[in-house]
Amino acid sequence: MGSVGVVGAGIIGLSSAVCILERDPTVKLTVIADKFTPNTTTTMEELERLSQRDDAGSYLTIYKTTTFDVTDESCEDPFWADLVDGYRHLSQKELAQISKTTKFGYSFTTWFFNGRNYLPWLIERLKSLGGTISKKTINSLDELAGSYDVVVNCSGMGARKLVNDSLVHPIRGQVLRVYAPWIKQAYCLNTKEWHTNGEVVLGGTAYHNNFDTRVNADDTRHILESTSQLVPSLKQARMINAWVGLRPGRTSARLEKEEKRFRDKSGKEACLKVGFWNT
Ligand SMILES: Cc1cc2nc3c(=O)[nH]c(=O)nc-3n(C[C@H](O)[C@H](O)[C@H](O)COP(=O)(O)OP(=O)(O)OC[C@H]3O[C@@H](n4cnc5c(N)ncnc54)[C@H](O)[C@@H]3O)c2cc1C
Fold first, then answer.
1. Rounded CA separation 160/175 (Å)
2. For a pocket test of ligand 1, which of 12, 14, 42 has the largest count of ligand atoms closer than 8 A to its C-beta?
3. Which end of the chain is more exposed for a tag (fewer CB within 10 A), N or C?
4. What does the sequence similarity comment in the record state about its family (predicted)?
């Protein structure tokens, strides 16, 4: 039995914490974060497993749906084409039905879930496995030396400051949430994507290195116009809210481990195993 501190309570931190406890329930584990859901930014086998639960539909809102991705330029198959179910190219007839300007498109079936339900569920799961949570800001990983044998750093955008990871940068995203239960499929036209579950998410702007978390009226107008062009019935959808978040962008995902030597509070040298997990 050892002690593990997980920094970060977004989807990466909470999923990592639950996985560690599911593998070894004797571990003494604490999730340390300054923000918890719904204030964090927020994946196929795990979703498949979760989808078999009794509460997959009512609480976790995990479901499978067909997605149509189309672009105005011809492009190559995505690298993940073999990972999803039923990947196929759209016929010219299907493309014309979606938009007159599209030249290339594909369809596939995959899992969707709503982070607003999934993260609270992960916190409950963590607690039921004996894990604890601690709300505080960590200024340096040194602070955790002596308290934990292993630290897993899943701090998202926070890694910029916490571990000076200059490759982590914000990708500002604005989305609109509307009520349109008649929409049963997901579409992605160039960069405009939306998912369905009664509540439909429209958009997903992506501005690199932009820290502004205020809702922008021009973005709202642009998202409404472009998605309504694709599916005119969206003009009738009731707006629920607009939301901006900063995706923790990184030139490549960071999944690595290292051993750090620190002085603990009493001045004794301590060794801390640190795992990094940043998307
Ligand atoms: C508009 C928008 C739409 C998106 N759509 C999708 C989508 O459709 N599909 C998809 O897969 N992804 C989507 N994403 C991306 C996805 O939300 C993120 O990639 C994901 O949430 C990142 O999770 P994370 O756990 O790495 O970071 P976060 O959720 O940002 O969590 C970081 C955690 O670390 C904590 N933390 C950081 N620094 C410190 C510190 N110094 N001390 C203590 N705690 C600290 C924070 O408090 C927080 O708890 C979208 C993002 C946005 C903004």
1. 24
2. 42
3. N
4. Belongs to the DAMOX/DASOX family.
Residue 14 in tokens: 């909470």
Question: CB atoms < 10 A from the CB of 82, how many?
Answer: 8
Q: Is 157 close to ligand 1, i.e. is its CB under 6 Å away?
A: yes
CB 81 within 8 A of CB 87: yes
252 token code pair: 């490549």
Confirm whether pTM is higher than 0.90. no
Q: Which residues, 6+ apart, have CB-to-CB distance to 195 below 8 Å?
A: 65, 112, 186, 201
Q: Which residues make Cβ contacts (< 8 Å) with residue 31, sequence separation at least 6?
A: 5, 6, 8, 9, 13, 14, 17, 126, 131, 132, 133, 134
d(CA 186, CA 161): 36
